Amino acid sequence: MATAVSIAQDRTVSGKVTSSDDGSTLPGVNVVVKGTTQGGVTDFEGNYKITVPEGGNTLVFSFIGLESQEVEIGSRSVIDVQMNSDVQQLSEVVVTALGISREKASLGYSVQEVSGEDVQKTNEVNIVNALQGQVAGVQIQGSAGALGGSSRITIRGANSLTGENQPLFVVDGVPIDNRNFATSSQQRGFGGGSYDYGNSASDINPADIESMTVLKGAAATAIYGSRGSNGVIVITTKKGAKDKGIGIEVNSTLTFDNPYAMVDHQREYGGGASYPTASGFNEFTQDGTSYLAPAYGKDGSWGPKYDPDVNVRHWDSWDPNSANYKEVRPWVAPENDYKSFFETGVTRNNSISLSKANDTGSFRLGFTNIDQDGTLPNSNLKRNTITFSATQNLSDKLTASFSGSYVNASTTGRNVTGYDNKNPMQAFLQWYQVQLDTDRLKDYTLADGRQQTWNAIGITKDGAGELIDYNHAPNYFDNPYWVRERNLQEDVRNRFFGNVDLNYKITDHISIGGKIMRDGYSSQAFEGIAPGGVDQSEYSEVTRHFSEMNYDARISYNKTVNDISISATLGGNRMKQSYNSIRNGTVGGLALAGFFNTSNSIQAPNLSTYESEKAINSIYFIGSFGYKNFLYLDVLARNDWSSALSKEDRSFLYPAVTASFVFSEVVDASWLSLGKIRVGYGQAGNDTGPYQLDDVFDPINPNFGTSSRYSVPDTRNNPDLVNELTTEIEFGIEARFLDSRVGFDFTYYDRTTDDQIMSVASSATTGYRAKWVNAGSMRNSGIELMLDALVLDLSGFQWNVALNLATYNNEVVSLAEGVDEITMGGTWAADLRIVKGESYMGLYGQDWKRHENGQPLVDENGYPVAADDRTYLGSAIADFTGGLRNTFSWKGISLSALFDFQGGGIIHSTSLQWANYSGMTPETVRQGGVDIRAEGYLFEGVFDDGSANTIRIPAQDYFQGYWNIASPNVYDASFIKFREASLAYALPNKLIENWPIRDIRVSFFGRNLAILSSNLPYLDPQAVTGTGNRQGLENAQVPSTRSWGFNIGFKL
Amino acid sequence: MKLLNKYKLIGVITFLVFFSSCERDFDELNTDPNSPVAVPPENLLTNALFNLTYSYWDRDLNFEFGELMVQHMAQNEYTEEQNYSFAQANFDFRWGNLYAGWDATSAPQGGMYDLVAARHMIEIDESMPTAIKANKLAVIDIFLSFSFQMVTDLWGNVPYSQAFKPSEYPAPVYDNQADIYTGMITTVTDAVNSINVSAEGFTSGDILFDGNMAAWKSFGNALLLRMGMRISEANSALAQSTVSAALGASLPAADVMFIFDGANQDLANPFYQDRIISTRDDFRISEILVNQMLANNDPRLVMYADPAPGGTEIIGMPYGLNDGGAFALKNSTSDIHENIENDPTAPAYLITRSEIEFFRAEAIARGWVSGSAQAAYEAAITASMNQWGVNPADIATYLAEPGVAYNTNNLTTQLESIAEQKWVALYSNGVEAYSEWRRLDFPVLSPGSGAFESSIPVRMLYPVTEDGTNGESLAAAGANTLFNAVWWDK
Question: Could you point out which of A616, A629, A849, A854 has its C-alpha 20 to 30 Å from the C-alpha of B8?
Answer without folding.
Answer: A616
